[in-house]
Write a structure and sequence with these properties.
The protein is α+β, with helices and mostly antiparallel strands and about 375 residues long. It has 5 helices and 16 strands. The strands form 4 sheets. Strands 1-7-3-4 form a 4-stranded antiparallel sheet, with no helix packed on it. It has a 4-stranded mixed sheet with strand order 6-5-2-8, with no helix packed on it. The chain starts with a helix and ends in a 7-residue tail after the last strand.
Amino acid sequence: MDDESTRRILDGTTWEEFCDTLKAAGAVVLGESSPESAFDRAEGFRYLSRLARAALETFVEDGDPRAPVLQRTAHETIKMGADNPDNHYQSAPIGGKYQYRITGTRGTVHYLGFGTQAGNYGATGTLNTTGYLDDSQLQLEPDGSFEILVSCEKRPGAGNWLPMLPESRTLVVRQTFLDKENETLADLRIERTDGPHLPRAVTPAQIDRGLIASGRFVVGCVRLFSQWAAGFAEQVNQLPRFEAEVATAAGGDPNIVYYHGYWKLAPDEALVIEVTPPECDYWNFQLNNHWMESLDYRYFKIWVNKQSARLRADGSVRVVVAHANPGVDNWIDTCGHDRGTMCWRWIRAVEHPQPRCRVMEVGELSDD
């Protein structure tokens, strides 16, 4: 493999194949199931550039499981798979044959979850969870500090333990806010414990594998979520419950029940979503574009959660998606889009009521 990688690096095959793979990803943006407007296609090509950034950071720059570093490859300008605006996502490369320690302080962020995962969207088309630990299970010191051991087998005397399998390749951390302005993130670090925490020197094999993985990730990710969006579009302006097995295979949080759908509105229409939230740790609703990227939550009100929503007197909630503010509670801004995907989540809910959706004329809305 090393000799072959050296040849591929020397004659430029590695780079040519990486570029060809990125070019193939563009065919998805131009596919029959994708919107034909210049606006949606522009967002589609921007989406590919964002995926490429995430892939290169993950598989080329910081892809060494012998010296993992927690990084953010999904955030305000890299989005995928209905990323949650309330989440601070972090990830690091790991390997099942190594052992690690996560240390940090809990902070006050509402929800904190750690998962190990196997596969990736490019290599296997899946991102299966191989171990999970959340804040409800976390043993803390009086000062809020903690330590988590990450390994395939639990070591004697270990307190907090995050399991891996031999095929585990990624550590993912989700920190979920209810109130970003007043909550503090957990401060986290990861280190290898069974050997030196040192990266390998750059080799032809490393760059060959990293660029192959990066290209495949971009293609795999855009294909997977484009297929999801096409399926959602078969039932427009509804929020059916998403299959748990499919969500889990794509790396979904095992504590979450998801409802995914597709929305499409004329200029004078509004989508009204109603439900009575159950007892739960957290819930939110968010609006995405066709490519399953959350809309720009830095500047626009494109989501609502358990903390920010205004409930009715009977405990129910009404969310209104409309192109302009109709002067009602829980308005969600479409940010110039006329279609896209959407998502509702319950975390650790005692029951999972079905959100009810209907399209209305904006003029028929009243603030009840």
